[in-house]
Write a structure and sequence with these properties.
Elements (H helix, E strand, L loop, with lengths): L1 H34 L9 H11 L9 H10 L7 H28 L10 H16 L2 H6 L6 H21 L2 H15 L9 H22 L3 H5 L1 H7 L2 H11 L4 H7 L12 H8 L20 H21 L12 H22 L1 H18 L8 H5 L2 H24 L12 H14 L6 H11 L6 E4 L2 H12 L8 E4 L6 H6 L20 H13 L8 E3 L12 E5 L3 H6 L9 E5 L10
Helix pairs in contact: 1-4, 1-5, 2-3, 2-22, 4-5, 4-7, 5-19, 5-20, 7-8, 7-9, 8-9, 8-12, 9-11, 9-17, 15-16, 16-17, 16-19, 21-22
């Protein structure tokens, strides 16, 4: 009877750890993501991804081919609007990432000493609390409720860390091959996955050392010994081929470019344009370690940039799990010290438990910080969020170590139900972040775009300032097929050769457009070309509108048509970027007058 009970208990623990708890983790994450999901487009690059997915085009560099293709599959689900389906895809992806993180924690916890966990259920309970604590951080929750590339990157990041952990512990060649295939696929989504290169390097070193040791034990002649290294190097060919197989999704870009889809950023139909797109295109200017585009790089400006990024990151780290209200601001640095201390203790404890594993994880975190401190894009918080999984892993490791040490040294036993306290973290995160994460009633981007298009005269030409105002208009025109009589011209694109192809097959309704590869060096040069190429040839025959204003444009006697965003709108969308609020109509003012 005793043996039977023991076997029954083992089976029960197995079911709890591998089925019941992970299923609960996935469902809790997904259902809360679904509850807070945006019903339509949300500010940011996700609007462009929606429009690009609809027409199977090419998004802004690096093109994001895997995201577009996967989005096209999800868009076939007959549920809600087109944008809603893609938002739902990101919710599902993030929930899968959370589930994989649970199994990553389980795998890592198996290497801890026996005194840390009294049973597999005890270990699984802490892992589920940690996974849910990650799920409802502000950064991950944001990515789970709207279309973006970072949700898929989150899945690939956790997958790579999980497979690498299994490979380090099991040394199965199939896991090495899977690791490289996942990395290649991750590259076809977002180049942020390059931060996991240390994982590939360490895995290859392990594989080569294993192959060399195996060859040494089975060879005796000098000729055989000389062939050990070439054979070990030759084993790299399969992983590299699998990496290239995964990255081959990029071939989608030139293939679709040949078909000339309506949205085709960079027009990668030839090798030059293709390399330009996958290499970052015009966004490479943000790699210059500048605090602001156009600021010269010096040691002084770079030091200021690093200081600013460090402060931003520290504030972001605190804000992930708890919203620091005015009455708690005095505690924020204490919270930061506690969180950083747990992460540090967890990392050092992990080094003593399994040096290779935690050292590699540390290198991955370091690679993330290398990008954070060398890339000055405005929405860098999405890159901060990519550090959250390993921060959580290190922090949980530190908490488990300190708890186990206290139980062993003070009470000399495991304290019943103490491990349930770990659920305070996801509960606190849900309580703090639910309101800011909830986009279920948020329709402002679509409302804004529809208000702008409704205000335009038939056959109008409208000038946009940048991504934030042109993306919503693209969505309504290419996805919802509204106001196709309007010609939308991105003024920031008129100096890009690829943008000319965008209008090649478009019905311009008699509108004259000139687009040339001439990068302006000053504001005056920019607006002079804008007038010469776009505005002057079409006034007064075509109604021309602008979603931005500049003193140079005052020569056209601009008339305010409407204001479509309020100061409250800007405050609410704290994690996004909104366009300028007003729409102007340019009149037939004296063309030769000087700008004011």
């Amino acid at each position: 009877m005793h043996t039977l009970n023991a076997n029954t208990e083992t089976r029960s623990e197995h079911l709890i750890q591998n089925i019941y708890l992970p299923l609960a983790v996935f469902l809790i994450a997904f259902l809360l993501y679904w509850r807070t999901l945006a019903p339509t487009i949300y500010w940011g690059d996700g609007i462009e991804f929606c429009a690009t997915t609809k027409v199977l085009g090419g998004a802004h560099p690096t093109g994001y081919p895997l995201l577009v293709l996967l989005g096209k599959v999800f868009s076939l689900i007959p549920l809600g609007t087109f944008a809603y389906r893609l938002n739902l895809m990101c919710a599902a992806l993030c929930a899968v990432g959370v589930l994989l993180f649970y199994f990553l924690l389980i795998r890592v916890f198996t290497i801890f000493p026996a005194f840390c966990f009294s049973s597999s259920t005890y270990r699984a309970t802490i892992a589920s609390a940690g996974a849910l604590g990650l799920a409802f951080t502000k950064g991950i929750w944001f990515q789970a409720t709207t279309m973006e590339a970072y949700a898929l990157n989150f899945v690939f990041l956790i997958s790579l860390l999980f497979v690498f952990t299994c490979y380090v512990l099991e040394r199965k060649p199939s896991l090495l091959y899977l690791l490289f295939l996942l990395f290649g696929l991750g590259m076809a989504n977002h180049l942020l996955i390059l931060t996991t290169i240390p994982v590939l390097v360490v895995a290859l070193i392990i594989a080569m050392r294993s192959r060399l040791a195996q060859a040494a034990s089975s060879t005796t002649t000098p000729a055989q010994r000389h062939r050990r290294l070439p054979q070990a190097l030759g084993m790299m060919s399969v992983p590299i081929l699998l990496l290239l197989l995964g990255a081959s999704a990029y071939l989608y870009l030139p293939i679709r470019a040949k078909a000339m889809p309506p949205l085709n950023w960079g027009n990668p139909k030839n090798l030059k344009n293709f390399l330009w797109v996958i290499n970052g295109g015009e966004f490479k200017k943000y790699h210059l370690l500048q605090e602001q585009p156009g600021t010269p790089f010096t040691l002084s400006t770079y030091r200021e940039f690093v200081e600013d990024q460090t402060i931003r990151y520290a504030k972001w780290m605190i804000d992930q799990w708890i919203t620091v209200q005015a009455y708690m601001r005095k505690l924020r640095y204490g919270l930061l010290i506690i969180m950083s201390g747990l992460v540090g203790v967890g990392f050092l404890w992990g080094l003593s438990v399994h040096l290779l594993l935690y050292l590699t994880f540390g290198l991955v975190i370091g690679a993330h910080f290398l990008i954070i401190f060398t890339y000055n894009i405005p929405d860098i918080s999405a890159y901060f969020a990519a550090t959250a999984p390993l921060l959580m892993l290190f922090g949980l490791s530190g908490a488990v170590f300190l708890q186990s040490l206290a139980e062993k040294k003070i009470w000399n036993r495991k304290i019943n139900y103490l491990h349930l306290c770990y659920f305070l973290l996801p509960i606190l995160a849900i309580y703090s972040n639910f309101r800011s994460a909830d986009k279920s009633q948020y329709t402002l981007p679509e409302d804004y775009a529809r208000s702008v298009l409704s205000a335009l005269a038939p056959g109008a030409l409208i000038l946009t300032a940048g991504d934030n105002d042109i993306y919503p208009l693209w969505y309504l025109q290419h996805v919802e097929h509204e106001r196709k009589d309007v010609v939308v011209v991105g003024s920031n694109f008129i100096f890009s050769e690829w943008y000319r192809e965008y209008f090649r097959d478009a019905d311009l309704h008699g509108i004259s457009l000139t687009i040339q590869e001439q990068q302006p060096t000053t504001d005056l040069a920019f607006f002079s070309r804008l007038s010469e190429w776009i505005i002057d040839p079409n006034l007064p025959d075509v109604p021309i509108y602008s979603l931005f204003m500049h003193p140079y444009l005052e020569r056209y006697s601009p008339q305010l048509v409407g204001v479509y965003l309020s100061s409250a709108d800007y405050r609410e969308a704290r994690e996004s970027f909104l366009p300028q609020p007003a729409l102007y109509r340019l009149g037939a003012g004296p063309k030769n007058s000087e700008p004011k």
